[in-house]
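$ ./design --mode recover --in tokens.txt
reading tokens...
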């Protein structure tokens, strides 16, 4: 069994929620939380609850880490650090095609529109990810209804997981995304 993040729902409204991350009596971070990348400056990295690095290989490998102690039961060590292969990601317009090479499944779960349609491993009852990355979120946002459908599907299937759509969390739409259930 993979180690899980300490999570406590502090506030909820429909799909939107605020999680306390870490020790329930004194959360180290709250959602909606920032995820910094290697392109961000030091100020952003210091503010962000998580940091993501991604290799430039095909298929890419993604690692999400944190500077906070978020691991139960003692919350005395930094972590976790989660790594997963992203697999091949085809554009959402090619939903009928199967990319063939699937992404990893585990505490870090990269998901694309294509994977939602073709990967039966997402139905495994033992799959309990900590963080779901909607890797083609920008492309889904450009196609009417697909982003909302993907978010709703993932929230119903994995209600306890944090959801990150890279490339969409700007100041212009952060509130709407949080209301939709993006963490």
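writing sequence...
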């Amino acid at each position: 069994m993979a180690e899980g993040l300490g999570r406590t729902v502090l506030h909820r409204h429909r799909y939107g929620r605020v999680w306390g991350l870490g020790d329930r009596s004194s959360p180290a971070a709250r959602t909606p939380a920032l995820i910094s990348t290697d392109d961000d400056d030091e100020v952003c990295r210091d503010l962000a609850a998580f940091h993501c690095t991604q290799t430039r290989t095909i298929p890419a490998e993604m690692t999400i880490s944190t500077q906070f102690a978020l691991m139960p039961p003692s919350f005395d060590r930094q972590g976790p650090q989660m790594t997963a292969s992203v697999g091949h990601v085809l554009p959402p317009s090619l939903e009928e095609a199967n990319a063939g090479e699937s992404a990893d499944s585990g505490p870090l779960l990269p998901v694309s529109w294509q994977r939602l349609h073709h990967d039966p491993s997402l139905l495994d009852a033992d799959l309990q990810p900590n963080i779901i990355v909607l890797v083609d979120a920008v492309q889904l946002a450009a196609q009417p209804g697909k982003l909302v459908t993907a978010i709703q599907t993932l929230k119903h299937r994995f209600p306890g997981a944090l959801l990150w759509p890279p490339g969409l969390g700007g100041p212009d739409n952060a509130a709407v995304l949080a209301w939709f259930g993006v963490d």
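exit 0
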